[in-house]
Structures are given as C-alpha cells and as structure tokens.
Amino acid sequence: METRMKEISAGKSSxxxxxxxxxxxxxxxxxxxYYVDMTSVKTSSATAKEAAQLLAQEYMMGTNIxxxxxxxxxxxxxxxxxxxxxxxTIPMLNxxxxxxxxxxxxxxxxxxxxxxxxxxxxxxxxVLLLMASVSTGKTINRAVECLQYYNGSxxxxxxxxxxxxxxxxxxxNSIFSPGDLPxxxxxxxxxxxxxxxxxxxxxxxxxxxxxxx
Length: 213
Hints:
- The chain is of the alpha/beta class.
- It contains 6 helices and 14 strands.
- Strand 8 (about 125-135), helix 5 (about 140-150) and strand 9 form a beta-alpha-beta unit.
C-alpha cells in the first residue's frame, strides 16, 4: 500500500507536505477513497513550525484567540501556532498575549471533557479548534457541544486538511483542501460505492494512522 503514496506540497510552502494513498479506507464516521498521511506535520518540529506560520496568517489581524484546543495529535502544531499568533515583535491582535494550548479528555462514553484544572482556559474564552483533518464534520460538532458546555466561545477552526470550507458558520482555515486532492471523496458507510462494488477495505484509519486489513 505504501508504494502507492505520493507527496503533495502546500501551495504557499514547499516545506509542508502530506502523503496521500488511493484506496478504500474506513474511518469511524465514513469511508474515504484516499488516506491522507499528516505524520510529518504532527511530528517534525521544523514542518510543524512552518505549517503553523501558514495557519497563523488567517488570524493575525482580526481574530482574538485565548485558547487553542488541539484534537487528533496536533499539540505540537498548536504550540507553534500559539507562538506565531502571540509573537510580540509583530504588530497583530494577539501580540504578547499568553495563549493556552490544551487537549480535551475522552470519557467512557467517548465524550470530550475538561478537568477542573483546565476548565478556566475554556470558560468565557475565545477558542480556536485545531484538527488534523475534517471530512464529515462530526468531530467538530462533538467539540462544539463540549465547548458550549464549558461556556467557551468558538471563534476559529483550523486544520491541516479539510474537505469542507466551513462549519457552524465559521470558515475552516486549512493548509490543504480538495483543490489539492480533487479526487478525494468521503461517503457515509451505508452509501459507499466501493463497498457496493465489493472492493475490499485496505485499512482502518483514525487520527493515529492506519492499520491494514
């Protein structure tokens, strides 16, 4: 399967790359015809720093951000994004501010929660939701329910790759979009044409990676 992988560079920086593998892949919410590998953006400090600079450009002048909530292993990217948005040497809205970077916990019911020691970073705060990828939007909906419960105000959504342009009336700021991968499709499990054609599932995928079947 790995032999089918090809690299795609971000339009604004050749230093930021993702890998894509065509096939039949099952996620917890849908079936997709491409596995999008974002490992380097999540694990390489140099790549994550460059990616954070790309995402930060959207928010430098007009979006007040107090807290970045990281999902799907984007903590290092979130830390660099906070650094870029609060750089005191650049005249921008968040310059010199202390931006919190936190990750919710999943309870036994797979609900997102924040413990007492981190709730103050959400309560009454302007929150940027940072994700690895957006396909169906179900993870965003679950995160929004969590933020509403803790009285957080969602003001921005950012992702490494997003198949959607907006969610809940908020623009999704992504480094890679369907324009970079025009043949990418996401299907509800019961409506997957690859299943209908009896094409075997190549791998199960989630935010940690993939497991071949």
